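Figure 3 (text version): structure tokens given as input.
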């Protein structure tokens, strides 16, 4: 993504840092963008589906959000 950036070439991201980026940056931004889209466009259809399961010691909880814009 930043192939010409010296900082990006040295950047690494493990679980803790990745979780912080997702929960503190990406999730709030995406929620705000979706809500703004709903309000501006008077969206008639949207759906949220969740499912919880365990697989090889991992707890999986995927969330699917679908809407038409």
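Below: residues designed for each position.
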């Amino acid at each position: 993504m930043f192939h010409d950036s010296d900082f990006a070439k040295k950047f690494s991201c493990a679980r803790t840092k990745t979780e912080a980026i997702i929960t503190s940056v990406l999730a709030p931004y995406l929620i705000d963008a979706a809500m703004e889209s709903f309000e501006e466009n008077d969206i008639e259809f949207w759906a949220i589906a969740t499912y919880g399961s365990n697989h090889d010691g991992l707890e999986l909880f995927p969330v699917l959000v679908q809407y038409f814009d």
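The first helix runs from residue 6 to 10.
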